[in-house]
Amino acid sequence: MSNSRKSLEEFRSKFLKVHNFHSNFSQYYHIDTPFSVVLEVYRSDLENKYFKIANFSPNDFSEILIDDESLLSSMAKRPLHQHDFFEFMFVQQGEVIFKIENTERIYPAGTGCIVNCNLRHLEKMSSDFRIFFLNLSKNYVKQLLDSISGLYFDIENDTSLHTLFHFLYKNASTEENTKKEYLDFFPVYNNSDSYKVIYNLEETLYLIFDYPYKYYTFKHFEV
Q: 144: helix, coil or strand?
């Protein structure tokens, strides 16, 4: 096993448990933390290509730079995966071809999606990108949604505003759910503010993980 491959596996093991690692059909990911943030950067336009991953969790920070050509080639052929946590994917720069089961969807900068735990998926290493991932465990999602179940104002109980909440709660609460579902996040035409809002939120999350302050647990990342 090459040093690069060994270091990649050791890095993954710090924040992910990968089941069916040698499968050519599907891998299964598990996280032990309630939530984490992952930043992926892929640059194929440089003389020395590289893929960089940084992982932020409440008690750990890990990062790795992969620039070994043989390892990059094998990563490009890696199988689809699914996991037991929710993964919000947002493209900060570039463009991502996201394979969901047997279809491929293109997500340019400023867009993203969330897939439920039944869908196999994969971000393809076909073009340069910078991707932000927010990972939330099922138990953490249920805890958050249960804590806001008693809303006091009519506008808060408007079900038309709760598409994401319904998606999360249904998929987190029903173990027997076998449906394959995902939600896209695309800004309304000519709406440039949404990208800035989401990007600023992501930057704030990075700061929280880097410099945690007391009572942040109770804020539930309401930044």
A: helix
- In contact, 56 and 45? CB cutoff 8 Å: no
Q: Is 178 helix (H, G, I), strand (E, B) or coil?
A: coil
- Write the DSSP assignment of 25-67 as a string of letters: SEEEEE-SSSEEEEEEEEE-SSSS-EEEEEEEETTEEEEEEE-
The 3-class secondary structure across 91-121, one letter per residue, is: EEEEEEEEEECCEEEEEECCCEEEECCCCCE
Radius of gyration of the chain (CA): 18
DSSP designation for 211: S
Residue 11 CA, chain-centre distance (Å), reads 17
Q: Could you give the C-alpha distances from 20 to 79, 125, 198, in angstroms and in order? A: 10, 21, 34
Instruction: Please state at what angle helix 138-147 crosses helix 163-173, rounded to 10 degrees.
Output: 130
3-class DSSP assignment, residue 122:
strand
Determine the Cα–Cα distance for residues 203 and 101; give it in Å rounded to an integer: 31
Spans of the chain, pLDDT less than 50: 1, 221-223
Which conformational region is residue 131 in: left (phi greater than 0), alpha (psi within -120 to 50 degrees), or beta?
A: beta
Query: For 58-76, what is each residue's pLDDT tens digit?
Result: 878 888 888 888 888 888 8
